[in-house]
Amino acid sequence: MSNSKEQQLPNTSHVEAEGEKKYSKLQWLFACFIIPLLFAIVVALVVMTVTGFNVFDLAHKYSGKIPVVSSIMAGDKTKSKTTTENIHSLKATIEDQKVEIEDLKAEIESKQNDLQVSQEEIDDLNKKLQALQKKQEKATVRLDEVVKVYETMSAKKSAEIFANMKNEDVLEILIRMNNAARAAVLEKMDPVKAADLTVLLKAEEEKTSTEINNG
User: Fold this and answer.
1) Distance between CA 215 and CA 193 in Å, rounded?
2) Quick check: is 170 in a domain?
3) Is the pLDDT of residue 96 over 60?
4) Angle at which helices 55-63 and 67-152 cross, to 10°
5) Confidence band, pLDDT 50/70/90 cuts, at residue 58
6) Does residue 125 fall inside a structural domain?
């Protein structure tokens, strides 16, 4: 047992010695090369900055010559260019849509104004029509009252009055009189005037009949 332990001890010390040797080499590498290199780079950057060199421009310039770095930079430029083009395209589309919207708004407003004018004209015409209808109704009422007066009057007296009136005015009264009163008045009138009025009455009746059939 003691012999085996003694044999293992030299092996352990040998491993430790090897590790210390490797560690010493690493320290020597840092001390002799890496630290001086880093120091030199820092000093160079400071000197270049003080003398007016743009370190970042130089790095950008020479990195473009390195295949991997240049491909990355080219990809970034392509993406930037594509993004810029998309923005311009979208902006142009938005501006075009704004113009179209304004044109549509103007057209709608114009149509609304035309419709409003047309509606106002229709309203005015309806008001005029209603006013005329009221006047017509009043005139019809007054004419009916006149007709009733002649219907209650003697046929001879009515004929004497009609003799001094225009045929058009007499016609308006005769067409509203009942058949018996109208026949009695025509019988008492001058034959020539009565004949003229009879022709006018017939034409008026045919006109009324045609309007009824067409209506």
Assistant:
1) 33
2) yes
3) yes
4) 90
5) low
6) no
Task: Give how many domains the chain has, as a whole number.
Answer: 2
CB crowding 107-140: b at 16 or more within 10 Å, else e: eeeeeeeeeeeeeeeeeeeeeeeeeeeeeeeeee
Domain membership of residue 161 as a residue range: 153-206
pLDDT of residue 137: 86
DSSP percent split of the chain into helix, strand, coil, nearest 5? 90, 0, 10
The predicted pLDDT at position 35 comes to 76
> What confidence category does residue 50 fall into, taking pLDDT thresholds of 50, 70 and 90?
low
CA–CA gap between residue 107 and residue 123 (Å, rounded): 24
Return the SS3 of 166.
coil
Q: Does residue 165 register a pLDDT over 80?
A: yes
- The CA distance from 91 to 68, in Å, is 35
